[in-house]
Design a protein that fits this description.
The protein is α+β, with helices and mostly antiparallel strands. It folds into three domains: 165 residues, no CATH class; 89 residues; 146 residues, 2-Layer Sandwich (Heat Shock Protein 90). 55% of the residues lie in helices and 17% in strands. The protein contains ten helices and twelve strands. A five-stranded mixed β-sheet has the order 2-1-5-4-3. The protein has a five-stranded mixed β-sheet with strand order 7-9-10-12-11. The longest helix is centred in the middle third of the chain and has 55 residues. The chain is rod-shaped and about 160 Å long. The two termini are 38 Å apart.
Amino acid sequence: MAINTLSGRFLILTTMFVLLAEVLILLPGIANFREDYLQTRLERAQIASLALLTTDQMIEPDLEEELLANAGVFNVVLRRDAIRQLVLSSPIPQQVAASYDLRETPYWKLVRDALAVLADPSNHVIRVIGDPVQKGGLVIEVTMETGPMRIAMIEYGLRLLTLSAALSVVTAILLFALVRQLMVEPIKRVVAHMAAYAEAPEDARRIIAPEARIVELRVAEDALASMQRQLTSALKQKERLAQLGQAVAKISHDLRNILTTAQLFADRMEDSDDPGVQRAAPKLMNSIGRAVNLCETTLAFGRAEEPPPTLSRFMLSGLVGEVVEGEQPPADAAQIDFVTDIAPNLVIRADHEQLYRVISNLVRNARQAIEATGKPGTIEIGAGEEPEGWWIRVQDTGPGLPVRAREHLFQPFSGGTRKGGTGLGLAISAELVRGHGGRLELVRTDADGTEFKLHLPREFDLPERAA
């Protein structure tokens, strides 16, 4: 069992807590044992003193020595009626090293004194003071050795340690087994389901069936099952869309060939002397041209994978000038004025070709929107610098975007801004701007016109592409 597993770490924590519990149990136990040991010696000494008190202070030396030996003390001092009296006595082998009063000793001092006795292997003589039992006097004092008491404390500590360790180990084993049953095994089950699902996410049979009895784990299983169902559905839909895309690409390819042939014949119709044919030919040519353009655009979008931008520094005003020159309307079209508000020395860092395509798409959409009204209009292109990077604004005085175009503005084949459009221009433009780490947004659109604004960061990380 590895340490970095949940079971391994739980076992280590359980062991640490068991050891801590042993310490918390052992220290108070030994301190209580020492206090009881001393109280027992005081009680035995008091009983021994009663033999002397009942004999008018006369007792044989051998009997006195036997009474002191049974009590485990060297002498007994009893204070009765404010008189301190040495009741029993025998020679003390050494000087008294310390005195302990058991009448008003804080518990922490009892623990400290017990640890001091265990830490010192030397045999000392100590004085112990306490209250006599059954009100047999005011105070009783005895002198005794610490050696026997230390041995008794060690023996008691070992017995207590063995018993508490056995109980703690049994408790830890039961707790460990219970946690494995209630937590580790259900988690392993969830992980196993996740691994099995990852092998074939399209297989709905591999979606986990929640069955945990613990509320938290059941919530996790429910969330996992919901996510797996959504992902399986999305993958199936993606697969169907991919198949549909392949079918559309094939149809567009064949349809483009057919329309190209029709376009050749329509070109010849322009040379006809029939007035009706001459009037219909331009309209037919325009319709076929739009159909061919739609097919080519669809094919290009289906196989396009935009390369990462090749960054370079250049004057933005020169690029915008090229866009404006290329988007000038024909002489017979509505009058459109181009206004540029760009500093001549504004230098930006971007991919020249990709940025040209973005601005060209925006300007072309604006021009076509104005031409559709048949009225004069204005297209304004502005740019500026900000701490984070650069911004470029394209706005027009056209009629604004239709409601449907606003709802699916940057979605291919859904966000067309004009009748007959595919909506690919804005979708591709947004993708190119995202490739620069920036964003393209619609600022406003109403009866007074439309305004788009794109932001290019000064410092950015290019998005990674799948191999």
